[in-house]
Give the backbone structure.
Amino acid sequence: MSARKKTTAKKASKPAAARRAASTRAGAGKRQTARRAGAKAAGKQVAKASGKPSSAGAGRAAAGARGGRRGPGATQRKVFYFGGGRADGDASMKEILGGKGANLAEMTSLGIPVPPGFTISTAVCLEFNERGKRLPAEVRADVLTALANVEKEMNLRFGDPERPLLVSVRSGARASMPGMMDTVLNLGLNGDTVRGLAAMAGERFAYDSYRRFIQMYGDVVLGVPHDRFEHRLDAAKRERDVADDVDLTADDLRRVVADYLEIVRETTGTPFPQDPQAQLWGAIGAVFSSWENQRAIAYRRLNDIPDHWGTAVNVQSMVFGNMGDDCATGVAFTRNPSTGEKFFYGEYLKNAQGEDVVAGIRTPQPINEASRAEDTKDLPTLEREMPKAYRDLVAIYKRLERHYRDMQDIEFTIQSGKLWMLQTRNGKRTAGAAVRIAVDMAREKLITKEEAILRVDANALDQLLHPTIDKSQAPPVIARGLPASPGAAVGEVVFSAEHAEARAKGGAKVILVRTETSPEDIVGMHASQGILTAKGGMTSHAAVVARGMGKSCVAGCGVLIIDYAQATMRIGEHVVREGDWLTIDGSSGEVMLGRAPTVVPELGGAFSELMQWTDKVRKLRVRTNADTPQDAEVARRFGAEGIGLCRTEHMFFEPGRILAVREMILASDTSARELALAKLRPMQRGDFEGIFRAMDGLPVTVRLLDPPLHEFLPHTDEDIQAVAAALGRSVGDVRHKLESLHEFNPMLGHRGCRLGITFPEIYAMQVRAITEAACRVAEDGVKVRPEIMIPLVAHARELERLRALAEKVIAEVRAEFPGTRVRPTIGTMIEVPRAALTADEIAHHADFFSFGTNDLTQMGYALSRDDAGNFLPAYVDGGLIPADPFVSIDEEGIGQLVKLGVELGRKTRADLKVGVCGEHGGDPASVRFFAKVGLDYVSCSPYRVPLARLAAAQASVVLGSAPR
Amino acid sequence: MSARKKTTAKKASKPAAARRAASTRAGAGKRQTARRAGAKAAGKQVAKASGKPSSAGAGRAAAGARGGRRGPGATQRKVFYFGGGRADGDASMKEILGGKGANLAEMTSLGIPVPPGFTISTAVCLEFNERGKRLPAEVRADVLTALANVEKEMNLRFGDPERPLLVSVRSGARASMPGMMDTVLNLGLNGDTVRGLAAMAGERFAYDSYRRFIQMYGDVVLGVPHDRFEHRLDAAKRERDVADDVDLTADDLRRVVADYLEIVRETTGTPFPQDPQAQLWGAIGAVFSSWENQRAIAYRRLNDIPDHWGTAVNVQSMVFGNMGDDCATGVAFTRNPSTGEKFFYGEYLKNAQGEDVVAGIRTPQPINEASRAEDTKDLPTLEREMPKAYRDLVAIYKRLERHYRDMQDIEFTIQSGKLWMLQTRNGKRTAGAAVRIAVDMAREKLITKEEAILRVDANALDQLLHPTIDKSQAPPVIARGLPASPGAAVGEVVFSAEHAEARAKGGAKVILVRTETSPEDIVGMHASQGILTAKGGMTSHAAVVARGMGKSCVAGCGVLIIDYAQATMRIGEHVVREGDWLTIDGSSGEVMLGRAPTVVPELGGAFSELMQWTDKVRKLRVRTNADTPQDAEVARRFGAEGIGLCRTEHMFFEPGRILAVREMILASDTSARELALAKLRPMQRGDFEGIFRAMDGLPVTVRLLDPPLHEFLPHTDEDIQAVAAALGRSVGDVRHKLESLHEFNPMLGHRGCRLGITFPEIYAMQVRAITEAACRVAEDGVKVRPEIMIPLVAHARELERLRALAEKVIAEVRAEFPGTRVRPTIGTMIEVPRAALTADEIAHHADFFSFGTNDLTQMGYALSRDDAGNFLPAYVDGGLIPADPFVSIDEEGIGQLVKLGVELGRKTRADLKVGVCGEHGGDPASVRFFAKVGLDYVSCSPYRVPLARLAAAQASVVLGSAPR
């Protein structure tokens, strides 16, 4: 008999983790193997994963049945009966029945054995909470009618002292909210009915059930502190000198029950309700009320669940897995939720209830050979112990998977040899499993390839591309920052980019820890396993660069205090020295002191196959942001179809170049600047050659110099002196230049094409380097497609003038390479709101647009990404805005600018190529938006390319676009 | 005989100034009185003033005549004859004939004596310059035909050795471009015709004319350096030992002519052209070419004149004012251009040419008694010397003024007693004269009141509201900055706000000189006469605050180097110490070492009357930006109809408050913050009471706290220590707070309503102070209309939440004042692009919108006003963008956001009140735009209120809105 309470609900989502927590408490941790825990814990990691896409299949299946099965006026109904093969609801009605209720109804209609019961709709929840916690009279009447049907079906009677019907009262919202709301089991017991139950199932069982009921009802409905009951139970065990509940006798429990009743009377001032109907109304009200408890509200905020959804209440006849050795309770998945392998996978406990599993005293047994793990290799299986029930279960799981056309997570109870199904739902799964299952099911023709594409959460793919931490063996978490760039990293702490580089050259694995990073740290970041910063948000320099490099990064870890002079950092009481080992998890933001074992994922054949399908379906092309030939190659392996953003300035920081850059900036006139630029040109040309070769046959968009010049200058006294000395300038000169370049709001300052307007020689050099590089590699037979991109254009005239400059330089270079077919196109970033608003004018001078949605968001939203840390989290957590607009594009606001920019641009020039190269290019939700507004491509960091390909394909499927 | 060349053209626009320059050269400066120079120089100050609005009247008059007079195909014509009462063109055809040509045609048609001639249209100019400087053959043919008509009319023949026709060849563009393009006089003279001329008008006159012609033609057409001719002429005078040209005899001049011809031959390699037709083609070509000379191009850039307008060429029969004592040349205005008084005002020279006036040897004589000045009080008048010609002139000027319905600036020449008109045009005038003339003419029913309103350039009103410098007695200009806040100021230099305050208390007049100002300097700025800064643009802190206070300010004076420690500043070679006298002119940006006399303007009855008319015509209301009762009173006197922006934070900087503000910021938790806020509340309440009383009956919009908190914290070590000591905190605490509040882009950071979201107690305090103040003054019978404005809203949810907060506080206060009728409305700034884009959502929670177009421009254009100094000037000067978008709103880009915001807002809420409170609210061009998009009001600094009223009325007239 399975009778789970809220803690059991948690178990459903992370069975092994919960058990481990429990078993650790019980000192049984040694039984858990790392592999098993790691694999099972994955169930939690995809908590939000398969929700939306994978429900589409089931929704469609149910929708097809809807018209026929549900009569008119069904939506007016508030209480929905299910039982004996007949149900008022079905799986399509999650909105009003909640997920659990809808599936119980569906299973019932399918003829699957489900304990009879009824569901009170979510509409009643809102009514109840709005009307001062009162259940409408007609709902009470309908409940009593439904209850009578249950009595009939079970041949029991609610409150009958001889054959008492007991029920469970559970919440069930549209979206799964594990453990967030309250549940009451064994309802219907009182001084009379407990004797009837005793006669039917034994004294000990009856009083244990009654004890559990009083405790649960007292806690959930009457507000009696949980620990008051626990203390009494502990006392009973001490008196009897036993360790476990199960060792208490019927008499012991009878005394405990008496004391429990007294505790309730004392605490609440009234006796425990003995009238089963009063119990029922109390429990229903408590479940509805729990929709508004703090925990539930916080959970909804975190998971974007609207308050107005409400929860349904499921009242269901109790069945018991703990009435004897012919009883059991268990959980199973129709396929392996960790790996996606196609076999029936589950565990069970004989003569047990959900609670017993939670207690962690007994290790669940595997349901079959395939489900065996290291710690269960000697335990008997359900298949062997109860072959009949197992055969029934197999028949049912197969039927359910076929019916729902998705992997199912099922709960069952066997009472006296009879199998009852308590729940079915689409099973949560790891990203790897999601891919495997989707591809397998499409191959099995259970679903179409398009459905397979929709089944995988693009965001979850990140898991497949980065190492993860084996949490079971990880050291404790000492701090938490922002999960700025996914993946786990382990290394020795270093506090400077120089040390990172030096130590890495010596073969060390290092974690670079900085208050914040700056472009000067790039080489050191490259040399590190991961980056940890004390300041900065999801789009700080560290975060953006790390994502581009595919490095793990935890950013904005506020508790971290670095003492560069001492080469130590303090995190609370911990003092970490340079060279100490540190583990960071860029997927969760966790920081661990010491070394955690990491698991490097393997990309299987299913992944490749799915990716090939996406390429056939999607219209939107996917490029990458890459500044080096190495990045370009990685991205190409991930399927990038070009470079959408190559930032020339990142090349400027390499040693041996930065001095020439500084010389250029410190130049007092144009000719001195041109001298310095002449030194830079061959270096830039070399960079471009490498990138063009790596992207042979694919387009490469090179952005001309964008950041304000002061970013390239030294800032510390020491550096200033060094630079002055190296360039033969006075320290005063350098300082003066620094001061004159200082800006209050550099984001809105002298950068981007404004540099090209005021110092045309800089852009001329870059255009020359690009064109020369292109002509040179073309001579070697490389198919080169350069695109020159002008940043920060706000007014069409800027682009007009700079285009003329670029065209002049290109013509000069072409004259030096007679016979070359290289023809760079010229386009612009659309990243200033004004540019989007006047895109029709700008398009006259542009071969392409590339939306820079990072800056467009910063300016359009008045939101400096580097400074938003002081208030943006409060906005997102407080529900003021639905999501961080730097993670997913703000469709309502900034999205309008993108849409307008595309429309206006194409109005002027129908063949205008339009893409996006901000961080949003790698965010699935944003990619879907970009597909909707008709962009030609997105560009994202190399490691996001597969996500973007999948998201683009999903958009095509949803939008019904023709495949290209 | 009047024969003016380019220097004469200059004279027309600034007669006295040019004369002064000339007479100073000749050592005759003593004759110029300060009053006269000042008054006449005003002609230059309004160089751009009356252009657009005042031309409307004449344009309309002429347009009425257009249909009747001009035949079909007239626009195809390229050469337009005028003479003998018949003209091909008219005054409406400025576009193709230029201003001069159109008016010559118009005068001819009116039967006014104009030397006959013809105009070659502006279209030919473009053709000429595009076709490699070649005159099309059909144009040459038409020119010869027109020339034949002139010959007939004058009974002279071009090139005829006995009765030679001489012509002038002058440029004449659509807009007046004084002195920018070339002119050739006396064309048609050669070795033969000079003898014919000698026979007709005397030897000396003929050879002097020939000399002048060769010199002018040589310079303008043949490119012979001007000084080569001058040297020769000087040599002739030295030989003859005379000082002036007039003392040279006919023989002397004959020799000079021979040498001039030789100079031309030597320099150009070919002889001076003797064929009059060749001379004519050369001169026409030179004038057309001069449209593209550097000077002309630069002038067009400065004055927003499009390149494609081109210039016309006027070829006109010469008449001579220098043929004897019955000859004269002169200039007159139909009313006094300095004061606007209604009398005929002008000056002339007997037996003279324009050049003689420029030479400054003779003082021009007044044309009548009324035109007499100090230095001309003993000279005979034209009225007395040539009564017949004077009577003719009076009849003509009256007719012209009636015809053109505007004050005319006319040029005339009297040749042998006969009056010839050479030019008429709407006369330039000072702002004061413009007001007086417009009001007088409307009273005289010459124009309507609406036309009177259009006649005054709103920008020029600034002159009337601020002291001006008497330039004739001003010390030399030692530096130039941005004209950041108009008006002249004189005072002793101080280098700190504290000193400014202290010295001012002691009765001193001071000029505050700072590298840049910050909010802490406000009290010191108030105490100063004017502010001079080394850094910052037109919308820097100093500029904005000074304009708000109506103080003179010169900002961004880059050459200024301040040494605070030594209390000195360096400007080039000048070292200025604290206490030295300094004069600044915030209208021109000039900085003068020493004390200049200033003239305080008087606002006459005409001004008041015009302002009353504007109030009847305009729909747009005009409010003011004011933070103190004093500012509010000033603005009210200027006609402000409410406060559109009261910045609460400006009150925070007053001594005795800033400490409480800092305590609030440094508070470690909410309750500590509330304690500090409780200290601030009575102070804020007091401020609001004062403002509400000052604005009795008018609405007052109070903006809640907007700037980032770090703006209120100390920054120097000394200040940090002082604050820490005063608040009993450690220096480390204060420093830590400073660091944690540091922002990379504060413009896009933690400010505005984000403070209200994260620290609701701050906004709650402010709303309470506002409401309490309103209820208190209401009890005294003051009619109070408070409006609470939430800044920096980007998302509707922000306003929703803060509105709820404000409403709660208001309800609380209202409960404390039972019976109060005070009901503050609640609205928001629209200053974030996203807010404009989602204004429909935001309007659900707003009673009013107020566009903050400063910030909207900064964000929408990606343009930090504090940082734009490094590139924006290059943009404006280089013609990349038409105007500084912080001065006049960028209609094409940012204007779209305003328009969209208004439309979306009113879509949600038709009665939404919409205003603007950025700096643009005081810019006439922007005000016209705001009227066009349907705003209800603009709000500007007190001293801009009259400008805004006038501009708003002009918009109503132009848009044809019904008067309110």
Notes: Chain A has 38 helices and 32 strands. Confidence is low (pLDDT under 50) at residues 1-74 of chain A.
